[in-house]
Amino acid sequence: MDSFSRDGLTFDVTDAGPVEGEVVILLHGFPQDRTAWSQVTEQLNATGLRTLAPDQRGYSPGASPTARSAYAMRELVADVVALADAANAQTFHVVGHDWGGAVAWAVAAAHPDRVASATVLSTPHPTAMAWAFTHGDQARRSWYMVTFQIPRLPEKRLHRGLRSLYLRTGMDADQAQRYVDRFPTPESLTPPMNWYRGMPASAAIGRSVKKMVSRRRGGGHSGPRKITVPTTYVWGRRDFALGRAAAEKTAEFVSADYRFVEVDAGHWLPEVEAEVVAHEIIQRVRPHLTA
After folding, report:
1. What is the greatest pairwise CA distance in the chain?
2. Three-class secondary structure assignment of 88-127
3. Which pLDDT score, from 0 to 100, does residue 101 have?
4. Under a CB-based contact definition with an 8 Å cutoff, are residues 276 and 263 in contact?
5. What pairing do the DSSP bridges indicate for beta strands 115-121 and 92-97?
6. CA 207 to chain centre
7. What is the pLDDT of residue 144?
8. For residue 288, what pLDDT is reported?
9. Distance between CA atoms of 233 and 248, rounded to whole angstroms?
10. Beta pairing class for 9-16 and 3-6
11. Residue 111: phi, psi to the nearest 5?
12. Structure confidence at residue 131 (pLDDT)
């Protein structure tokens, strides 16, 4: 299939590999698109896995609503489930990078009956992220989230320096140019930026902070619900946006089999470390295939 629909929106998707293979859903980040996974999918397909890589909400031309509320995490999670349903996949493996990683954590938490495994790249568990805002340098790294709330101006500034951003943070020139071409005007960045303006991640962070404050004050809160599906988390030690404190804290929020993989790389793991990423996905999926 090359697209799927939900609530009047149509999402573009790259469906590759054998139709009968285990389904792996690949969720890109910001500002990227489904081509982030091109090198990864080749390796996954070669092992018999079927890969579904959508252009997510705000990136597919037919699925770019204007309302900020349309980018709430519940909507992003429902999009992934709709894709699995369209592919007739009762269970699936979810992989996400950057914002796609945040969605992967949320899908695994909300639908453990559907998710066979999760592999998350770069993005820590949201509660670990919240903790790192007061126990590390994450607040300094995430300053741009606040500036992105301003209308129009962030798009103009980001568009002006987009190629430079990709290159100075480790992406190769060819892939950087593909993304620059993908976002040809400041206005083309508005739907992707609505992920920040919808603030689903910040809402999760806010809830987590409140829970931590409540426990410190003796509120007796039982704490965040842990991820109960087998999970691999891959983090680059040179990531400009996501720091070590949250990366190492993430283990506390997974109760199933968990693997933390630290690599000597930056943020753009699907594009720059495709071989490592594919290997870790296959290692995570393989026990399910042989069970």
Report:
1. 54
2. CCCCEEEEEECHHHHHHHHHHHHCCCCEEEEEEECCCCHH
3. 97
4. yes
5. parallel
6. 20
7. 67
8. 59
9. 10
10. antiparallel
11. -135, 60
12. 86
Instruction: Decide: residue 136, CB within 10 A, 0-12 exposed, 13-18 middle, 19+ buried.
Output: middle
Q: How far is CA 220 from CA 133, 170, 207, 224, 248, in A?
A: 22, 44, 15, 12, 25
- The per-residue pLDDT for range 186-224, each reduced to its tens digit, is 999 999 999 888 864 445 444 544 453 344 334 444 456
> For the chain, where are the alpha helices, taking DSSP H only?
38-46, 73-86, 99-110, 126-135, 138-141, 144-147, 153-160, 162-168, 173-182, 190-198, 200-216, 244-249, 269-272, 274-290
Confidence (pLDDT) at 277: 98
Q: Which two tokens stand for residue 148?
A: 């992105």
Q: Give the CA angle between residues 168, 128, 262 to the nearest 5°.
A: 50
- The helix or strand, by DSSP H or E, that contains position 11, with its residue range, turns out to be strand 9-16
pLDDT recorded at residue 218:
42
Residues of the chain with pLDDT under 50: 200-202, 204-206, 208-210, 212-222, 290-291
Measured in whole angstroms, the distance separating CA 58 from the mean position of its chain's CA atoms is 14
Q: Is 260 helix (H, G, I), strand (E, B) or coil?
A: strand
Which string of b and e fits 108-127 if b means at least 16 CB within 10 Å?
bbbbeebbbbbbbbbbbbbb
Say whether pTM exceeds 0.85: yes
What's the pLDDT score for residue 241?
87
Helix or strand or coil: residue 87?
coil
Dist. CA 283–CA 62, nearest whole Å: 35
User: At residue 38, what are phi and psi to the nearest 5 degrees?
Assistant: -55, -50
